[in-house]
């Protein structure tokens, strides 16, 4: 069987500081006319994805892109074509979007769309936009349970834009199973009133029993799965190389942690990926957001995004400012 011809497309996610993003409707005369999508278009001969993005957004809506970073790659087969979409997060542009091709535009809030239908290839992208730029991992092991819970309460009480916590991975491998269950139960009770999603670490059954928002798996645990677990809303996987990222893709992960990027006390003597190594892996193109982990602070967020990441995952740093 002949492999399908793949059309390469660059698409831009225009992001405003408040987190809203732009969708455009497909104009009459095109396949899926009236469906909503992220603006962009086909790569021309000799173009990079970024070159095509800048050209297409200028032609389609009259803006000049000034800041864009690579994000996800999604391959999707429609009845009329197989497309490989390279998505960029666009955070800077000159001009105001204008409908040069008869389309409509609508600014949207993650998780609260008010337009439809959405072009099928864009569904996973909308899910990725709900993830925060900083993913916090618990640190009861380093601080002690009582001290860490006090800092958790402090961060939960703050608004999201002022250090408030709305996503947490409860990772405490030093605890016995009964102790972890007790901690998880208490953490869920604390987090739910504040709208903070909690992902348990490594234990699918416990996450389902307690009604957690998801589960985060070590690569070896994910590798033993045949498919994405049923009944799990959010699924994350820890990875260290391309093979483990491929496992995350196979099991349908919503995101992956990749590292360690910088030298850390928790990995003595183990070589770090560094930013070049991180970029070499992320730029291969994955259909889910990838977080940099290992010695990451808030000042590393932009660097991670410039190297193809979604943001950073933090353990110690997540609680140093609480």
Structure description:
- Pfam families: NUDIX, TMP-TENI.
- Its cofactor is Mg(2+).
- Belongs to the Nudix hydrolase family.
- This is 8-oxo-dGTP diphosphatase.
- This protein is of the alpha/beta class and 322 residues long.
- It has 2 domains: 117 residues, Alpha-Beta Complex (Nucleoside Triphosphate Pyrophosphohydrolase); 187 residues, Aldolase class I (TIM Barrel, Alpha-Beta Barrel), CATH 3.20.20.70.
- It is 28% helix and 27% strand.
- It is built from 11 helices and 15 strands.
- The protein has an 8-stranded parallel beta barrel. The chain has a 4-stranded mixed beta sheet with strand order 4-1-6-5, with helices on one face.
- β5 and β6 form a beta hairpin.
- α4 runs parallel beside α5.
- The chain is globular and about 60 Å long.
Low-pLDDT stretches: none
Which range best describes the helical content: under 10%, 10-25%, 25-40%, 40-55%, 55-70% or over 70%?
25-40%
Please provide the ordered H/E string of secondary-structure elements.
Answer: EEEEHEEEHEHHEHEHEHEHEHEHEH
**Superfamily (CATH H level) name of the largest domain:** Aldolase class I
Assembly state (oligomeric)? single chain
CATH topology name of the largest domain: TIM Barrel
Q: Please, how many domains?
A: 2
| Largest sheet: spatial strand order | 8-9-10-11-12-13-14-15
Family: Belongs to the Nudix hydrolase family.
InterPro entries: Aldolase_TIM, MutT-like, Nudix_hydrolase, NUDIX_hydrolase-like_dom_sf, NUDIX_hydrolase_CS, NUDIX_hydrolase_dom, ThiamineP_synth_sf, ThiamineP_synth_TenI
Protein name: 8-oxo-dGTP diphosphatase
EC number: 3.6.1.55
């Amino acid at each position: 069987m002949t492999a399908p011809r793949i059309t390469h497309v660059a698409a831009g996610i225009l992001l405003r500081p408040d987190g809203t993003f732009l969708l455009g409707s497909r104009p009459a005369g095109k396949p899926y006319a009236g469906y909503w999508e992220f603006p962009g278009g086909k790569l021309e001969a000799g173009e990079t994805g970024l070159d095509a993005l800048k050209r297409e957004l200028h032609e389609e809506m009259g803006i000049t892109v000034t800041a864009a970073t690579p994000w996800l790659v999604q391959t999707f087969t429609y009845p009329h074509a197989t497309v490989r979409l390279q998505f960029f997060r666009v955070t800077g542009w000159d001009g105001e979007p204008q409908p040069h091709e008869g389309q409509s535009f609508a600014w949207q809030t993650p998780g609260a769309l008010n337009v439809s239908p959405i072009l099928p290839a864009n569904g996973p992208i909308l899910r990725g936009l709900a993830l925060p730029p900083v993913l916090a991992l618990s640190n009861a092991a380093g601080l002690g349970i009582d001290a860490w819970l006090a800092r958790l309460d402090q961060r939960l009480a703050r608004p999201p834009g002022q250090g408030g916590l709305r996503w947490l991975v409860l990772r405490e491998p030093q605890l016995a199973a009964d102790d972890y269950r007790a901690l998880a139960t208490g953490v869920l009770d604390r987090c739910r009133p504040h709208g903070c999603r909690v992902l348990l670490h490594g234990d699918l059954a416990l996450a389902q029993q307690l009604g957690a928002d998801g589960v985060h798996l070590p690569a070896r645990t994910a590798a033993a799965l045949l498919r994405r677990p049923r009944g799990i809303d959010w699924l994350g996987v820890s990875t260290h190389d391309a093979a483990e990222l491929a496992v995350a893709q196979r099991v349908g992960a919503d995101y992956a942690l990749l590292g360690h990027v910088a030298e850390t006390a928790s990995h003595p003597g183990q070589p770090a990926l560094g930013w070049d190594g991180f970029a070499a892996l992320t730029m291969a193109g994955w259909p889910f957001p990838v977080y940099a982990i290992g010695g990451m602070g808030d000042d590393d967020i932009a660097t991670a995004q410039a190297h193809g990441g979604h943001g950073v995952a933090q353990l110690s740093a997540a609680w140093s400012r609480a």
